[in-house]
Specification:
Layout lengths: L2 E6 L4 H9 L5 E7 L5 H8 L4 E3 L8 H12 L6 E5 L7 H4 L5 E5 L11 H8 L3 E8 L20 E8 L6 H25 L3 E4 L4 E4 L23 E5 L11 E4 L12 E2 L9 H14 L6 E6 L2 E7 L3 H11 L1 H4 L2 E5 L5 H7 L4 E6 L4 H7 L6 E4 L10 E6 L2 E6 L11 E2 L7 H14 L7 E5 L2 E6 L5 H15 L9 E4 L7 H9 L3 E4 L6 H10 L3 E4 L9
Helix pairs in contact: 1-6, 8-10, 10-11, 13-14
Length: 545
Amino acid sequence: MTRIAGMAGNRGRNLLNIADRRPGGVEFAVVLTNTEDAPVLEAAAERGIPTEVVPLEDGMSRSEHEEAVLEALSDYEFDLVCLDGYMRILSDTFLESAPTTLNVHPALLPSFPGMDAWGDALEAGVSVTGCTVHVVTDATDAEGAVLESEVDAGPIVTQEPIPVYEGDDEEDLKERVLYEGEFRAYPRAVKWFAEGAVDVDLKAGTVSVDADVASTDSNDHNGLPARRLVSDDRADTLRYGENPHQDAAVYADYTCDEASVVHADQLNEGAKSLSYNNYNDADGALNLIKEFDEPAAAVIKHTNPAGCATADSVAEAYEKALSTDPMSAFGGIVALNRKCDAATAEQVIDSFKEVVVAPGYTDDALEVLLEKDNLRVLDVGELGERTERFTEKPLVGGRLVQERDLQSISVDDLEVVTEREPSDAELESMVFAWQTLKHVKSNGILFTKGTETVGVGMGQVSRVDAVRLAAMKADEHAEGKDAEGAVMASDAFFPFPDGIEEAAEAGIEAVVQPGGSVNDEDVIEAANEHGMAMAFTGQRSFRHD
């Protein structure tokens, strides 16, 4: 365990934050100050941390005071010294006798190294400042006088950028640098030292950090960054969020090269702008149709596909997608992976839709679509390649980041496990179903015929219920099609044969699923009893948000 000697001049808020968070499992051996009434003393005592006071007495030289500090610390065992507002420049008298000493400065060094970093940043008119955690080095001459050019000049361990907004004053900026900058950077640096990930070379004036790299435990991935620094610009303030009582905005990453609804042109000028939910659903719809090389169409409702299909033309694909669940498609989002023509546009406006997304429109199609005042028409331009590598989900207190699910299967990837072999048509349908199912919320079940959906069971806590929902949708909501003879896809394995039994009752004749359950043999046996063909993909396709 790494033990810290903290040295503060006033409140010691960074030290207390580290004590409360214990990055890397650290503990404080002692907190020392040179001011008898420093608030940090009481706060440390409340946390059970021993405290020491070493006042600067009249006539005491720098080296004499530092020797007194070392004497006060001599009764404690510690591996790292952390300064926080300790208003004494340290010399080698202290630094050569103590372990590595860290300090945090409220600017991105070497910019604004002085005592008024916030004021200097505002006066300079910069748009970004921040904080720097660095190793403390001697900043005095042989007589103990301070060398201003050497203050805060030690090698940098880590930095944290903080934006400067129009209208900020020193207090605003100080607050943000402390609570959004220093409270991130200082614990990070301490954690690295606690993990033994830091190598300090004072002669070279450098710090290297093994942990501050893109790393992973597996060799079949490219790694995730140790830190994510994200800077997006607010593109628009939205009317509200998911609900009217929630404020919302959309932020844009202008380095993104991939076709995106954030960067799409809204062609019907004067129409109301996209809402929070519109952006979310349109993004989901666009991501789904990017899966296919053939002409494809999808209708999305609440980020789930109400229907999806590929066909020889985008108009035919849209007709098949819509017929899966026309009732749920009301008020939905339409996405196409080909230029929208007039024939498709006529179908789109036949019932109420919120948004249509496509890589272009013919003049005739636009003339049709723009007749609908409340239909937002988005042109995302050429679809091109999918370039964004990560997806992320904000959590309270952090965020989850993962590699995007870009898995794609072919017929050759399928492992047939039943007595009956799937037909060529069933194999084609399995591949289509698997690429579509990636975009259905888990637990997800998809019924397909050929390359069109006939029933979707999404977001269920029971896989059996997801099968029942897909069957109900296929038999009660689909127009001109049903579950009889369809292929069923499941985004995760069947833990028991009951899901297969429900599928057989609905008329399913072939199944594609990941496999991997301890009860796979029982599930396969159930499929054999019903004359079903079943293939395993060997990979799961969960989607929880």
